[in-house]
């Protein structure tokens, strides 16, 4: 979204005594978000998603299950990274907004507003990416567990069949935990972005001390929801990480590295 600086954007001068509680809320929120990291830990898996796709198209029948498992691992790790980046986008957007509406704001209103719009645009793009990756993840998981169930039933050894059934049940529970955490978080993240966009549209046409004071309640609610959103997305990354770490084959999981946003 392309936005031009608007003539109504002026430095605000708020009576800090009147808005003391809001200022304290903003300072607490700024401390919360400043503690968030701007680096994404990524657990790189081999082979890559593209390599998995190529393997799957040429794999012999008796190795297709192995390839499907690799594909599922890569899809879950992709969602893991999406959730990490989503959390960073929440932090970035809220840090910019909090600075902008702070009673002590002394920056360039137009430049700060444009930075806010850019951060919201990135957050919207990230939300779309998460949804785009979440749907094929579910399709891949269905194929993996259907095949696993058929293979379990084909095992002749009672002890090995029992162990495989137990392992499948544990893996399915970890996968379902990913779905239980990521699904609602994805919906909440999209709603959060819409709420954040509302604030930007409101301030883009009317940014002054009175206009900010009139949305004090909404600002507090947004701060609370953004903190909850950050925690929710962290739970998603934890669920994805638990699945990958338990399911990755011996040579797949390489040391975690840091990937800059």
Report on this model:
This protein is mostly helical and 261 residues long. It has one domain (31-37, 45-253): Four Helix Bundle (Hemerythrin (Met), subunit A) (Up-down Bundle), CATH 1.20.120. The protein is 75% helix and 3% strand. It has helices at residues 20-34, 49-58, 64-101, 109-154, 158-205, 209-214, 216-247, and strands at residues 39-42, 257-260. The chain has a two-stranded antiparallel sheet with strand order 1-2. α1 packs parallel to α7 (216-247) and α2 runs antiparallel to α3 (64-101). The longest helix has 48 residues, at 158-205. Residues 1-8, 10-19, 37-60 and 253-261 have low confidence and may be disordered.
Architecture blueprint of SSEs:
Elements: H1 20-34, E1 39-42, H2 49-58, H3 64-101, H4 109-154, H5 158-205, H6 209-214, H7 216-247, E2 257-260
Antiparallel strand pairs: 1-2
Label the CATH architecture: Up-down Bundle
Which fold does the CATH topology refer to? Four Helix Bundle (Hemerythrin (Met), subunit A)
In total, the number of strands is 2
Output the CATH class name.
Answer: Mainly Alpha
Q: Quick one: overall form?
A: elongated
- The span between the termini is 20 Å
Helices and strands, in N-to-C order? HEHHHHHHE
Oligomer: single chain
Order of adjacent strands in the largest pleated sheet: 1-2
- Low-confidence runs: 1-8, 10-19, 37-60, 253-261
The whole-angstrom Rg is 23 Å
Total number of distinct structural domains: 1
Helix content: over 70%
Strand content: under 5%
């Amino acid at each position: 979204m392309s936005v031009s600086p608007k003539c109504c954007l002026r430095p605000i001068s708020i009576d800090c005594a009147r808005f003391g509680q809001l200022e304290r809320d903003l300072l607490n929120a700024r401390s919360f978000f400043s503690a968030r990291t701007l680096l994404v830990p990524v657990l790189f898996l081999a082979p890559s998603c593209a390599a998995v796709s190529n393997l799957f198209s040429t794999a012999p029948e008796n190795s297709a299950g192995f390839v499907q498992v690799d594909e599922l691992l890569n899809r879950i790790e992709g969602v893991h990274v999406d959730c990490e980046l989503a959390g960073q986008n929440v932090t970035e957007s809220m840090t910019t907004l909090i600075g902008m509406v702070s009673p002590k704001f002394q920056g360039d209103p137009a430049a700060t507003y444009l930075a806010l719009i850019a951060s919201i645009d990135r957050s919207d793009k990230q939300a779309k990416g998460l949804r785009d990756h979440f749907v094929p993840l579910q399709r891949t998981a269905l194929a993996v567990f259907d095949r696993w169930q058929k293979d379990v039933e084909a095992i002749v050894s009672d002890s090995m069949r029992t162990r495989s059934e137990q392992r499948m049940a544990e893996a399915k529970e970890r996968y379902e935990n990913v779905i239980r955490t990521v699904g609602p978080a994805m919906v909440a993240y999209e709603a959060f972005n819409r709420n954040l966009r509302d604030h930007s549209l409101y301030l883009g046409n009317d940014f002054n001390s009175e206009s900010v004071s009139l949305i004090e309640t909404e600002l507090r609610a947004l701060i609370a929801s953004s903190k909850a959103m950050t925690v929710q997305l962290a739970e998603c990354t934890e669920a994805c990480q638990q699945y990958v770490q338990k399911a990755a084959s011996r040579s797949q999981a390489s040391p975690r590295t840091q990937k800059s946003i």
